[in-house]
Design brief:
By secondary structure, the chain is an all-alpha fold. The protein contains 11 helices and no strands.
């Protein structure tokens, strides 16, 4: 839904600064409750995994009420980057996109929404791992698509946005960072940083996925 809305907005805005599309503000307001819900849903998943893995009380019953805080601390430690991402989307990006933009730059907002193209592949990969399907062709194909879509739609997205503005303003790509306000460059850097970290994790997983497995030892080698 986000990618479709982003595609409609970005392709409808011929002037990348002044053109507007009603979906840019409507979908932003629709997405905020999702981020809030997702933080809660991720905590519920973490809580139930904690219970299922046998981390209850000594008598096998539920843990003491204070353990909820221990689980919450573990959740924040494990999902800190994702929770921070969601919190920034709600507390920073939403006010900026609704108030600070003053109706300008819908093209850029549409492009940012298209970053979610990679999300279905990320989610499918997690589902296949939960079902122990890492050895299947589907998992390998999905991994390749996840790597490609994440690179194009989340990492290379930011150079593309700079290039698009440079083409609009008649500037070369390398001159754009010097021609725009410093806080815009800072915001782009803060948004790009977690994408680079996640892309590094995806590349590391892809190396393990496509690394040829060593053949099992022969009977003679096993005896040795």
């Amino acid at each position: 839904m986000a990618s479709t809305a982003g595609y409609i907005v970005s392709t409808s805005c011929k002037h990348i600064i002044d053109d507007q599309h009603w979906l840019s503000s409507a979908y932003t307001q629709f997405a905020v409750p999702y981020f809030i819900y997702d933080i809660y849903a991720m905590f519920l998943c973490h809580w139930h995994k904690h219970q299922v893995k046998g981390h209850g009380g000594d008598d096998g019953g539920p843990r003491a009420p204070g353990s909820m805080w221990a689980v919450a601390r573990g959740y924040l430690h494990k999902e800190f980057l994702m929770v921070l991402h969601h919190a920034v989307m709600v507390l920073v990006c939403f006010p900026l996109s609704v108030v600070w933009r003053q109706g300008k730059g819908d093209f850029f907002l549409g492009c940012m929404l298209m970053a979610e193209v990679s999300t279905p592949f990320v989610c499918l990969g997690k589902i296949l791992i939960q079902y122990k399907q890492q050895h299947t062709l589907l998992h390998k194909v999905n991994g390749a698509l996840m790597l490609l879509s994440f690179l194009c739609c989340r990492v290379l997205l930011f150079p593309y946005l700079y290039w698009a503005y440079g083409r609009h303003a008649g500037l070369p790509l390398l001159a754009v960072p010097l021609a725009i306000p410093a806080h815009v460059n800072l915001g782009a850097a803060l948004l790009l940083a977690p994408q680079l970290y996640w892309f590094f994790l995806i590349c590391r997983g892809a190396c393990r996925l496509f690394r040829p497995r060593s053949p099992p030892p022969s009977p003679c080698q096993a005896q040795d």
